[in-house]
Design brief:
- The complex is a heterodimer of chains A (about 300) and B (about 600).
- The model of chain A has no long low-confidence stretch (mean pLDDT about 85).
- In chain A, about 70% of the residues lie in helices and about 0% in strands.
- Chain B is mainly α.
- Chain B folds into 2 domains: about 475 residues, no CATH class; about 50 residues.
- Chain B is about 70% helix and about 5% strand.
- Chain B is built from 22 helices and 5 strands.
- In chain B, the strands form 2 sheets. Chain B has a two-stranded antiparallel ribbon with strand order 1-2. In chain B, strands 4-5 form a two-stranded antiparallel ribbon.
- In chain B, a hairpin with a 5-residue loop joins strand 4 and strand 5.
- In chain B, helix 14 packs antiparallel against helix 15.
- Chain B is globular, with a radius of gyration of 26 Å.
- Classes of the chains: A mainly alpha (about 300), B mainly alpha (about 600).
Chain lengths: ~300, ~600
């Protein structure tokens, strides 16, 4: 049952990671800022708030939060955290995660259009635009890592015995995809509700109350899914001797390291213009391709 | 030469033929049932009988195409199929557009048939028979460069029918102009006969001879994927949009087929079978969900009298069942788990992964990685396109008055649509069983014995054991998703909520005019792909005075690259030659008799010389 305990664990700590990133950002900006548990307070507050639903919406709008939450939880089930899962491979593999996340995104984009506000439409359009362009980079980095393992089975990838250069490059490529997918700077800015710049926030603008809580929780989980993947690609389990305590420690250090990196990037760069983001994602594609080339060469 | 004119109608019911027959009958059944409600009250009785006659002829000719075992009869059936479908395209012949579309279709399909005929005649020269098995035996002895020529001829010929870029030009004309139930057959099934031709004649009979065959197919397939989906994103006519997606999906099917061809050349038999399964799986999936989407588009067209998605909106409240069915189709075509499109795209990606793992040359390994990236990009863009299509048609507020009076489709139409929805689910959740069945089909067409291979069906999971230690279980995915969705909904879903108008930033009333449009939705894509789409805009301002603009008209277009740079010059050259040749036509019988005489002389000399 470790798999369920692990999944439960990352679902519970998912908002904490967002809180930590915010804290790191605030500290870098010399601000006191909110505590690292603030995302939990936000979720609880939203959870008990009354919901306002637009008259224009249909059942798509109502069902979307559940589908989004379910899709990210399924993705979280597939990710190895600190044990190599022997039986999760029956559900699917590394490639499945990309498709599963696409399911949630598809419904979120539809819900964005459902209320009939142009914010939602704009958000949906941009979200689908960026995510579709992020896909090639994601699949190439997945391929590069899987080529090193000889399979797309995540358990095997996590159990690799050595760190290869191509895996590290693929990790960086995946990091760029993760920045785009989790709506972080320089692609998107989670902190603003400025109409012309927002992407993800515009799409979910009509949501409130408990539905919004579900969607925010889903965003937190999606973020930790990406971070866990990157952490585990860069630091496979077996190199630490397979000891569970070491693995947990390595995992937590990895997540914290990635959070720090993301926080640092967020305070140090400005948000890109939408069409500059194409170059950003093209770079992740090129990195992914480089990872494949190096992996084919055997490094 | 004796059996040239002595041809018997004989059939070949091997697994490949049976598979295609199943695809044809499944989609045609739904379309035929659908047409009862669709044609009713819209056409006169005579026209309806005419439709049934053509439909029956169409289905029979398609069934013949995939089941005869003689290349000569194959060609006859192929021609009947093309001609009957031409008459179906111009079914609404009152419209000038239909005639135009029919003409383009007729010309393109005959160019294709010419290529196929040429390929068959070359093969006949070696086999002295049109029988498939005789051809297959003769092709073993064929010199390699002749084989290459036959391959190119057949690829071009069948490529026209299946709509490979740059031969796709007829699809976006012909498919939208036909009545919707015919569109669904043409797009869902008829273009697949081109794929049947490629598998039957290139893989089964001719036999893959060099690596570049597979690589060429993969490159063409990759281009088809991207071109199809990018044009689809720009399209606002719902049926044209779906037609462009057919180009894309034919590309995805051919990615699997091409990958299989490369593996065949490498003698990696289990992987060749595996990739072909991926291609065939996507073939049946596309037949089902594209048929479904075209039928839903037909219902929408029937209800609103419009095909422009910019003028729709809010139909989910008027047509709940059609909306649900379209959503399922859209999810399947966007490759979202656990539906069927996802399974086949996952299989194709796995095929590419194994190809880049085990390919013999480093360059080839990287090439397969790139193919996977193209497939991933295509998937992402297709999802964006269907968010646009579903969102604009079914969600938010109606964008024109006609939508207000729209009603749900007739009973027979709903039954047909729900039947295809059922198939979409069944093909997704029954992936394990389908995989096993398709393994038989693929082994038949590649001539590889799969008995020794470890293709697994284990608790409805796909376990391509020979490939790598991975498995996929769509029922489990569906179960987990379902449990979480229902659990969260029942446990935490009932919250107090109230209805209120959409947030409008304090604007006094949000109108349909404020909604995001399909043009706006696809704007980022238009900008990102402007190197290919070459967009331009037309702005017209009518001014009352210097400071007051009375009306403002803004139109944006994309340059049809293939038409402008390939087809228009080609048509120009043909017309120019025709004009030149007109000089020979003097209208005098004496001159014509002398032409005949000269021709006979030349022929006599030619026959003696060679």
């Amino acid at each position: 049952m470790t798999i369920h305990v692990e999944t439960l664990f990352i679902i519970i700590i998912a908002p904490l990671v967002s809180g930590i990133i915010t804290k790191i950002k605030n500290n870098l900006r010399m601000r006191k800022g909110q505590g690292i548990f603030q995302p939990y307070h936000n979720l609880i507050k939203l959870f008990y708030k009354e919901e306002v639903v637009s008259e224009n919406t249909s059942w798509i709008f109502r069902i979307t939060p559940f589908i989004v939450l379910a899709s990210v939880i399924l993705a979280a089930l597939l990710v190895p955290i600190f044990t190599i899962m022997p039986y999760a491979r029956h559900i699917g593999d590394f490639i499945l995660i990309i498709f599963i996340l696409a399911l949630g995104r598809f419904f979120l984009a539809l819900a964005g259009l459902d209320a009939g506000s142009s914010f939602g439409g704009m958000g949906s359009s941009r979200e689908m635009f960026l995510s579709s362009l992020a896909e090639p980079g994601a699949i190439l980095s997945i391929f590069a890592v899987s080529l090193n393992a000889g399979t797309t089975n995540l358990g095997v990838i996590f159990g690799l015995h050595d760190i290869k250069l191509s895996s590290i490059i693929a990790g960086f490529s995946l990091m760029m995809v993760a920045i785009a997918e989790t709506s972080r700077m320089p692609i998107d800015n989670q902190e603003t509700h400025l109409e012309l710049t927002m992407i993800h926030e515009a799409m979910v603008l009509e949501y409130s109350g408990r539905s919004l809580a579900f969607i925010e929780l889903a965003s937190h989980i999606k973020q930790i899914v990406f971070f866990s993947l990157i952490a585990n690609i860069l630091f496979p389990a077996v190199i630490l001797g397979g000891n569970i305590i070491f693995n947990i420690a390595a995992y937590i250090i990895g997540i914290l390291g990635i959070s720090a990196a993301v926080g640092f990037i967020e305070v140090s760069v400005a948000k890109m213009r939408l069409f500059r983001a194409v170059d950003f994602l093209a770079f992740s594609f090129v990195l992914g391709l480089a990872a494949i080339v190096i992996s084919v060469m055997g490094a | 030469m004796e059996n040239f004119f002595n041809i018997k109608l004989s059939f070949l019911f091997d697994p490949l033929s049976i598979f295609f027959l199943f695809v044809i009958f499944a989609v045609c059944l739904a379309s035929a049932v659908y047409s009862i409600g669709y044609l009713n009250k819209k056409y006169s009785n005579g026209k309806i009988i005419y439709n049934w006659f053509l439909l029956a002829a169409f289905i029979v000719s398609m069934a013949l195409v995939v089941s005869v075992r003689n290349a000569f009869i194959f060609l006859i059936a192929w021609e009947i199929m093309s001609l009957v479908s031409y008459f179906l395209v111009i079914f609404d012949s009152r419209e000038e557009k239909s005639i135009h579309a029919g003409m383009i279709y007729l010309i393109m399909t005959h160019v294709g048939t010419a290529f196929i005929t040429a390929g068959f005649l070359i093969m006949y020269k070696y086999a002295n028979s049109f029988d498939f098995l005789a051809l297959k035996n003769a092709c073993v002895l064929m010199p390699p460069n002749v084989k290459n020529i036959v391959f190119l001829f057949l690829l071009a010929g069948f490529g026209v029918k299946s709509g490979i870029v740059p031969l796709h030009i007829w699809l976006p004309y012909a498919h939208p102009q036909a009545p919707s139930h015919i569109s669904s057959i043409m797009s869902g099934v008829m273009i697949k006969t081109g794929i049947y031709g490629i598998i039957r004649f290139i893989i089964f009979i001719l036999g893959v001879d060099s690596i570049w065959w597979g690589v060429l197919v993969l490159i063409l397939a990759g281009i088809s994927c991207l071109v199809g989906v990018i044009y689809a994103l720009m399209e606002h006519d719902i049926k044209k949009l779906l037609a462009y997606h057919s180009v894309e999906n034919i590309g995805i099917i051919l990615l699997g087929v091409g990958c299989s061809m490369v593996f065949l050349e490498f003698n990696m038999s289990s992987l060749a079978v595996f990739s072909l399964i991926a291609g065939l799986y996507h073939l049946i999936n596309h037949a089902v969900f594209k048929g479904l989407l075209f039928l839903c588009a037909g219902s929408v067209y029937n209800a609103t009298g419009n095909r422009d998605i910019e003028k729709m909106g809010g139909l989910i409240k008027k047509m709940p069942i059609t909306a649900f069915a379209f959503l399922i189709g859209a999810m399947a075509i966007s490759a979202l788990p656990p539906l069927n499109g996802f399974v086949s795209e996952w299989l194709t990606l796995q095929a590419f992964f194994v190809a880049s793992l085990t390919g013999y040359m480093a360059g080839l390994k990287i090439f397969f990685g790139l193919c996977a990236a193209i497939l991933a990009l295509t998937g992402g863009l297709a999802a964006a396109c269907f968010v646009k299509a579903f969102g604009m048609i079914f969600l938010a507020m109606p964008r024109s008055g006609k939508i207000e009076d729209a009603t749900e489709a007739a009973l027979s139409m709903k039954i047909a649509i729900l039947f295809l929805v059922f198939l979409t689910f069944a093909l997704g959740l029954g992936a394990g069983i389908m995989f096993k069945l398709l393994a038989v089909v693929a082994s038949c067409s590649t001539g590889i014995n799969i008995g020794a291979m470890n293709f697994g069906l284990n608790n409805f999971m796909i376990m391509p054991g020979a490939v790598s230690s991975i498995s996929l279980s769509t029922p489990l995915i569906a179960l987990i998703l379902g449990v979480i969705i229902i659990g969260v909904y029942l446990g935490l879903g009932n919250n107090k909520s109230r209805k209120y108008s959409t947030w409008d930033c304090g604007y006094y009333k949000l109108e349909p005019r404020n909604e995001y449009t399909a043009t706006g939705f696809s704007k980022p894509f238009r900008v990102a792909f402007n190197f290919f789409l070459l967009p331009y805009r037309k702005v017209e301002k009518i001014r009352g005075s210097l400071y007051y603009i009375k009306s403002f008209k803004y139109e944006t277009f994309t340059t049809p690259v293939f038409k402008k740079y390939i087809y228009y010059p080609l048509i120009g050259a043909v017309l120019h030659t025709a004009k030149f040749m007109r000089g020979l036509q003097l209208g005098s019988i004496h001159v014509y008799i002398s032409y005949i005489f000269i021709t006979i002389l030349v022929l006599i000399i030619f026959m003696n010389r060679f």
